[in-house]
Amino acid sequence: MDPVPLSRVYCPASQRVDDWEQCRALLDDVGAASWITGGHGVPNVTLLPTMWRGSLLLAHAAAHNLQFDLPEATPVPCRVVVQGPHTYVTPRWYPSVQPPDLGGSARGRAEFRGVGTWDYTQVQVAGWLRVHRDRDRLRTEVMDQAEQLDAARLVETPHVGDAVRGPWNRDEAPHDFTDAMLQGIVGLELEITDVVGRFKVSRNRTAVDRDGVVQGLRERGRDRDHRVADEVAAAPPLPRGVQGPSTP
């Protein structure tokens, strides 16, 4: 068995999520992740559609991508970053630091004692990366992923013009076409050794401030603002006596 690769992720306890199912749900939602490996000079990174299967992450990449020009089955340390919704949060949404004449409750030294921040959800997965070129395995993994993504597309948008045809399936692709396609890719497998979810969603603020953040984000109104607002609203408050950090 290979040793566990050293993995360091800065994540305050107030923001940490260790539940693999919650972390996996974020990947299922966004669908893709950044695969990061070391190299000569700066690290290499490629954004790839990614599947989480048990204790493995699976993906595929172009065979010409030099980041993955690796000997088969030779383990390489790798980090995979799943980025969820993220957005700016202004201190003007915190009633606890705004004076009464501006709609807040702060008085004296408490007035304006706040700064903006960035709320986000993110999962970092570390482990051993192995590359494979097994055509039968690649065919199964690629087609499974393609069918899964297309089915999800129609669940999310059931009224699109092609919905009457149902989701795409592997039988539509000619065998000679898929054979040629498979020659141009390599399979990636990450054996997971560490998972850190960092959900920085205003848990260190009071309930009144969190309500202010949710209201402010919904008023701003972009898709990512609504998604972060949902995360802030759903996050449990910190246990009494636990203080979260005020900086990223």
UniProtKB/TrEMBL annotation:
Any Pfam family matching the protein: FMN_bind_2
SUPFAM superfamilies xrefs: FMN-binding split barrel
InterPro entries according to UniProt: Split_barrel_FMN-bd (IPR012349), TR_PAI2-type (IPR007396)
Region (Disordered): 218-248
Comp. bias regions, Basic and acidic residues: 218-230
Name of the featured protein: FMN-binding negative transcriptional regulator
